[in-house]
């Protein structure tokens, strides 16, 4: 059977709502849609699911709260290259009473992981994955300032990825989350040469720790060089290493680092312990 596509005017008529309400449903990811020329279209099957309370318009129980499938909604907007719609999903998540940590860890990260997986399976073109990542980075720049906390800083954290490592998005997300806990964070981004990384640590004030992100196996030798350079110039500053390519404390020790940043909560707790000792 052919899955027909219908206009937003037809969607509004079927739902007995104003056209702009149907438009909002699409732009907030509640109802899947795609842009054809200057108009938006919705598959009839998606409209049927929406009317039944299924699909992206559904809500699920998560503990004591009812949550919408935010990650799936954002994923759909990112795949379509709909930056404005993706921003609408961001804002809808926050309007629903969720905090910035929830937005990053429960919405943005799962959406990007799902897109990456679909690319690996051959379902999406590489341009779609790259476009989605770039949109995500721009969205983060629009909400990043909200992570800063007032008051006295706990100290400075230097973050970055070693030479050859091109994944800056995960570092940027981590930087915002650590910043929300009261730290000053210097995000050096991706592909940072070892000596330049070490020089940045030397030139920064009140550095409490250094975090090195490694997402692919091929970047491990460069990560080892970066950690060695930092340790050579600033031996008393603890170095954390984390990312998809790091799997255990033993792996961290082989690289010459001090701690494994296995997840954001354990990293924050460990950083806070360093701050208290300092």
Give your account of this protein's structure.
This protein is α/β, with parallel strands linked by helices. It has 3 domains: 1-58, Multidrug-efflux Transporter Regulator, Chain: A, Domain 2 (Orthogonal Bundle), CATH 1.10.1660; 59-147, Methionine synthase domain (Methyltransferase, Methionine Synthase (B12-binding Domains), Chain A, domain 1); 151-277, Cobalamin-binding domain (Rossmann fold). Strand 4 (60-62) and strand 5 form a beta hairpin. The protein is elongated. It has helices spanning 8-15, 19-27, 44-51, 70-79, 83-95, 100-120, 126-143, 169-179, 194-203, 220-233, 249-255, 264-277, and strands spanning 5-7, 34-36, 39-43, 60-62, 65-67, 156-160, 184-187, 207-213, 239-242, 259-260. The mean pLDDT is 88. It is 51% helix and 14% strand. The strands form 3 sheets. A 5-stranded parallel beta sheet has the order 7-6-8-9-10, sandwiched between helices.
Return the structural class: alpha/beta
The stretches of 5 or more residues where confidence is low (pLDDT under 50) are: none
DSSP strand tally: 10
Strand order of the largest sheet: 7-6-8-9-10
Number of domains: 3
In CATH, the architecture of the largest domain is 3-Layer(aba) Sandwich
What's the end-to-end separation, in Å?
67 Å
CATH topology of the largest domain, by name, is Rossmann fold
Topology (SSEs and partners):
Layout: E1 5-7, H1 8-15, H2 19-27, E2 34-36, E3 39-43, H3 44-51, E4 60-62, E5 65-67, H4 70-79, H5 83-95, H6 100-120, H7 126-143, E6 156-160, H8 169-179, E7 184-187, H9 194-203, E8 207-213, H10 220-233, E9 239-242, H11 249-255, E10 259-260, H12 264-277
Parallel strand pairs: 6-7, 6-8, 8-9, 9-10
Antiparallel strand pairs: 1-3, 2-3, 4-5
Helix pairs in contact: 1-2, 4-5, 4-6, 6-7, 9-10
């Amino acid at each position: 059977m052919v899955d027909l596509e219908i206009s937003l005017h037809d969607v509004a008529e079927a739902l007995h709502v104003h056209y702009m309400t149907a438009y909002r449903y699409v732009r907030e990811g509640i109802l899947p849609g795609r842009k054809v020329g200057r108009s938006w279209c919705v598959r009839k099957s998606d409209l049927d699911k929406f009317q039944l309370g299924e699909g992206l318009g559904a809500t699920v129980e998560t503990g004591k709260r009812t949550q919408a499938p935010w990650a799936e909604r954002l994923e759909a907007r990112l795949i379509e290259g709909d930056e404005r719609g993706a921003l609408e999903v961001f804002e809808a998540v926050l309007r629903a009473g969720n905090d910035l940590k929830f937005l990053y860890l429960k919405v943005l990260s799962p959406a990007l992981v799902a897109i990456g997986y679909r690319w690996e399976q051959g379902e999406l073109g590489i341009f779609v994955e790259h476009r989605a990542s770039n949109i995500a980075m721009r969205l983060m720049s629009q909400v990043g300032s909200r992570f800063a906390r007032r008051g006295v800083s706990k100290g400075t954290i230097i973050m970055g990825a070693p030479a050859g490592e091109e994944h800056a998005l995960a570092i940027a997300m981590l930087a915002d989350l650590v910043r929300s806990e009261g730290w000053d964070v210097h995000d050096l981004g991706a592909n940072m040469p070892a000596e330049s990384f070490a020089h940045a640590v030397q030139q920064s004030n009140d550095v409490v720790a250094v975090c090195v992100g490694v997402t692919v196996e091929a970047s491990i030798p460069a990560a080892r060089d970066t950690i060695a350079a930092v340790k050579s110039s600033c031996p008393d500053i603890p170095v954390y290493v984390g990312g998809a390519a790091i799997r255990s404390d033993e792996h961290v020790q082989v690289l010459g680092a001090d701690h494994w940043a296995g997840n954001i909560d354990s990293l924050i707790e460990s950083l806070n312990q360093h701050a208290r000792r300092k």
